[in-house]
Structure formats: C-alpha cells, structure tokens
Specification:
With 546 residues, the protein is of the alpha+beta class. Helix 5 crosses helix 11, helix 6 crosses helix 7 and helix 11 packs across helix 12. The longest helix has 20 residues. It starts with a strand and ends with a strand.
C-alpha cells in the first residue's frame, strides 16, 4: 500500500506511513541522519537545486540563493516570488520542490508513493489550502485530502492510547504557524452499527504567521545588538556575511537554551572574534510577548466552548520543546500536559488518515500486489481496521457564501450571504435559490467568498466588481472564484437558480442549477486568479423573486 502522510512544515517537513504492524512510522532521512527534511531550498545554479539540510548550510555563504519559511507565503494575496537564473518561482513551486524531496526520499528506499494526505494549519483559508494541494500535485503526488495539523496530532494520540470521553486541547506551535484546537474523543456508533472512536473538533484558533521563527527573530536581534555593542558598531555597519553567520547559529543557540541555562555564540565581526553569552532568562524575557500571544489564543478558543473541561493538553510542534512554552501551558493546565513525538505526531496522524481514506474509497483490498516493500496483506488489513475504528469530524476554517444583489428598498445592494459559518462540521453543505437580476439575461455571475464573520449577511462587504471594501477589514473578506451560469434566450427574471456550496478540508465546491432546464454548472474553486470574466456582459444573481 503506497499511502503516506506528509507534514509540510515551515522549517522542517516529515513523511510517514503505516508499517506492517499497522503502526505509523516516519520515513528516515538517511542522507541527513534525521527523521526530518529541512524545508529549505538552495538554487545553486540553473542545473542544480538542493533541498534539505545541505540547502540550509548555504544560508551563511549564499543566503541570497536560499529560500526558507515559504509556508508563510503560500496562498497569500501578498505572497512574494523568487527569481533565480532567469526563472521565477512561486511559493507553490518552492513547496513542490520540498514535497518532491520527500517523494524521492521514499523512492530511494525502494518504495512507491502514490496517495498522500498533506497537513495544513487549522487556520489556513481556502487559498492557502488550494495552493498546498496544487504543490502536491505539481510534485507528482495524488493528494487524497488535506487534514488540519492539530486534528492529525489528535488522531495519532487517539490511535496510540485512546480513552473514552476525553476532551483534549492541542497546542501546536510549529516553525511558522500556531494552532490551538479543542477535540472531543468519544465512542459512537457508525452507519453500520459498529462502535467507533470519534474525534470531534469542537473549536479552533490560532495564527498562520506565528511560530518558532518569531522566537528565532527575537534571538537574532538580541545577538546582533550585542555584537554591535561589543564592537562599537551600528546594525547598519554589520556586514551581510556576519548577519548570515548570526542567523545560522540562532537555531543551535535556541536548542541549547532548552537544555541549559545559558548558551555561548561566537561570531566573527569585521575580523574580530566576538563571544556572546545568552541566558535562558534573557531569551524568555525577550519573547514573553510571543508566549502570551499563544496563550491569548488558547483563552479565546476556550471561550468558544464554555463549560468544557479539558482533560489532556497535547504539546505538538518542535517549538514546544522550549521550557518557557511547557511552563506556560503547565501553569494554565497543571498536571494535564503531555508531549509525545511533537516533531512526528502530525505526520503520523496524516498517515493514519490517508490509510483510512484509501480504504473508505475502496481503492485497496486484501491481497493487493505492489512493488512497495511496505505493501503487505497485513498492512492492508491494519488500514481497514483503522477505517473501521475511527471517525474524524473537523470544522470549517472560515465562513463561505456567494455575493448577490439585495433588491429590497430603493437601492440595490451587493451583499455577501454566509451559507456556511466558521466552525461548522465538515463536510458542510448548504443550498439556496436565487434569481436573475433582469429579464432576458444571457448569463449570471456567481462569485464565492470566504470571510471571518459569523453574521448571516455582510453589508458592505465588497463592491459590484467583487473587491473587498476597506471599510470592513476585520472580517477579512476574500474573493475565491467565480462561476458563470449561461441562460437560455428569453429567461424570465423569476427563473430559480439553485446554488449549493460544499466545504471540506481540501476546498470549496460550488454548484448552480437552472431549475427550469436542469442544466448544472459546477466548479471546485481554487483562487481569485481563476476569475477571468467580462464584467460588462455578465449580471448578478438577486436574493428575492419579487
């Protein structure tokens, strides 16, 4: 069975599968003597691109040809692009190179890799999720689905030591993202009448631009300023090579401070050897605001589930090795904090989920033959047992709905109607009937949006061209895509057009049906760049038939 789970991380990535005993195992990176692959890409020249630890080692000497932390850029409206040797790379393409490295890692050990599940931060919106899936496809992978990182971690925990009726808070601080999720684990009965272990996401929160990198940046600034004071220089007088030297030693210093009370960092500053001592107290003081920021997200997430008692707290992500994080979480949840495979739990949970999906789709059966050395009858049987043992119920990361015209009153208003609200169970489906704005329209334009509001309607949200209004920045309204519905000649303005939105972990599917002709128009929305319509020739849908 060639099914794998991938934790595509900001700083490190990891890939896992089920072994012949049905236990999730991480694929060893023998080249770097690690279970991880650094999410760093070095464009040495036009004929050679390096991914992993070897790429990371070039940050000091060739930093202008190294790309890292690309997960913070993927799917963002303001995402940057990178140019090397006359070729431009997007964050999707950079991510695909990292995924290709993981794919090659599996294949170099004589195994095949086909179906995968890739993890994403729970707070990722559709554009970030779609871009992640595109990166997987670009790497030649069949992406079965995406799964939220905290949910994957909870699934890994549940598979290892399930206890009935446990409410778990997953505190997931990775290299570049932070998620906090409240999960209920309980026994339930499935459609076949069998008892299964249910993982139900109750609430989620976080920030996809908060992570261990922010602690690194603080430590970098501290060491840089100390070097300046020691040598009588200003930060502007520190050479680029020296800055890169400091940056390359920050991660090592941070790891030392997780085990020791102080760490020494030696830097060459303009030919002079400078030794800087950083204490754990110094580090904790300079990053106390970041710790507080994560705990604020914990509080706000708990407010979404009033009265819920947390039984266990799981620390997930490499950044949770820092004592300041462990102490802060322990202070809030005394005696309830656990840490199991914080670097690997997400990939392992994704591997379990991938195996479950393959069985559910009926694409793997007993006795399957494969060149994959991991594909044995027992592995398949274990995957089937997992599919029968667990059920996962996650939440929508945003609110979703169409932009339509509200014709009530003297002036038409363009509004966003939230079909599916943030925090609803996935997959979520909602339908509503709309109507053409005018008689004899040749077609209507259906635009889909995501936002952070729980209101039924946002006014104003966007203008008639679908652009988010500056007067409503708090709701983070984004145009996702557009569906054009062609209408037959002489269509009356009271012709019903049934619109359906379906949201799952991988994205949004929109369908529009002309109920008089039964003609169906549908699309799996990706990004705003897919929208390419002559606005002057296309009209809107309206809410009311009157």
């Amino acid at each position: 069975m060639s099914t794998y789970g991938i934790d595509l991380g900001t700083t490190y990535s990891c890939i896992a599968r089920l072994d012949s005993n049905g236990n999730p195992e991480v694929i060893r990176n023998n080249e770097d003597d690690s279970n991880m692959v650094a999410s760093v890409v070095f464009f040495e020249n036009e004929n050679n691109v390096v991914v992993g630890q070897a790429a990371k080692e070039n940050i000091e000497t060739d930093g202008d040809r190294v790309v890292q932390f690309v997960k913070r850029e993927i799917g963002k409206r303001d995402m940057r692009t990178y140019e090397f040797d006359g070729k431009t790379y997007t964050p999707v393409e950079i991510s695909a190179l990292i995924l290709t490295r993981l794919k090659n890692l599996v294949e170099s050990q004589g195994n095949n890799i086909e179906d995968v599940v890739i993890t994403v931060p729970a707070y990722f919106g559709l554009e970030e999720r779609s871009a992640t899936k595109q990166a997987g496809e670009l790497a030649g992978l069949h992406v079965l689905s995406l799964i939220n990182e905290p949910t994957a971690a909870a699934l890994s925990y549940c598979a290892r030591q399930f206890q009935e009726d446990r409410t778990i808070l997953v505190y997931d601080l990775g290299g570049g993202t932070f998620d906090v999720t409240v999960v209920k684990m309980s026994m339930t009965r499935n459609e076949q009448g069998k008892d299964v272990q249910k993982i139900n996401v109750l609430a989620t929160g976080g920030d996809d631009r908060l992570g261990g990198k922010d602690w690194d940046d603080k430590l970098f600034e501290h060491i840089l300023n100390a070097c300046c004071e020691e040598n009588g220089l200003t930060p502007q007088e520190i050479e680029a090579e020296t800055r890169q030297d400091i940056r390359s030693k920050v991660e090592e210093a941070k790891r030392k401070l997780s085990k020791k009370q102080s760490a020494k960092v030696r830097i060459d500053v303009n030919g002079s050897r400078t030794e800087i001592t950083v204490t754990r107290t110094d580090f904790e003081n300079m990053t106390a605001d970041k710790v507080a920021q994560t705990m604020n997200f914990v509080d706000s997430t708990l407010q979404k589930v009033p009265g819920v008692e947390i039984d266990t707290v799981l620390l997930v992500g490499g950044s949770t090795y820092m004592p300041m994080i462990q102490n802060a979480v322990e202070a809030k949840f005394p005696g309830k904090v656990q840490q199991h495979d914080p670097d690997q739990a997400v990939a392992k949970g994704a591997a379990i989920y991938a195996s479950m999906l393959v069985v559910e789709e009926g694409t793997v059966t007993d006795g399957e033959t494969s060149t994959d050395t991991n594909s044995t009858d027992s592995t398949v049987q274990h995957a089937e047992q997992l599919a029968a043992k667990f059920t996962v119920e996650d939440q929508t990361p945003r609110s979703f709905g169409p932009g339509v015209m509200d014709t009530k009153g003297s002036k038409h208003k363009y509004v966003l109607e939230n079909f599916i609200k943030i925090g609803e169970k996935m997959p979520a489906v909602f339908s509503k009937t709309y109507y053409p704005l005018e008689d004899n329209q040749e077609r209507v334009r259906l635009r889909a949006f995501e936002n952070m509001s729980t209101e039924d309607t946002l006014i104003p949200c966007v203008d008639e061209d679908g652009n988010p209004q500056a007067t409503d920045p708090a709701n983070n309204v984004k145009l996702l895509g557009e569906l054009v519905v062609n209408l037959p000649p002489e269509t009356a303005r009271n012709t019903p057009i049934k619109v359906t939105f379906k949201v799952d972990a991988s994205g949004v599917h929109v369908e529009a049906v002309n109920t008089k002709t039964n003609e169906v128009f549908e699309t799996f929305l990706r990004t705003e760049s897919d929208v390419d319509v002559d606005n002057s020739a296309v009209h809107q849908l309206r809410i009311s038939a009157d």
